[in-house]
Design brief:
Blueprint lengths: L1 H12 L4 E7 L3 E8 L10 H12 L3 E5 L6 E8 L6
Antiparallel strand pairs: 1-2, 2-4, 3-4
Amino acid sequence: MAREAITNAVKHAGARDILVVLSEDERTVRVAISDDGKGGAEPSGGGLSGLARRLLALDGEFVVDSPPGGPTKIVATLPKAEPCG
């Protein structure tokens, strides 16, 4: 997910600075990718909607904040797997 978001930021938004932050708590794992590109990313567009579908299939959440002119921030949150045994 992060690699695809970074590729999109460079390819489509002309981003030069990209920040990836991975965090977790007792219930979830979260990755946030922000960039300094031109913004205007459409969550319903092909690439982003595909990411959203994959995350939703894993009971995750996907949020895109990308106003025209930038910056863009994409956040994916996934529940942690239950331990086996």
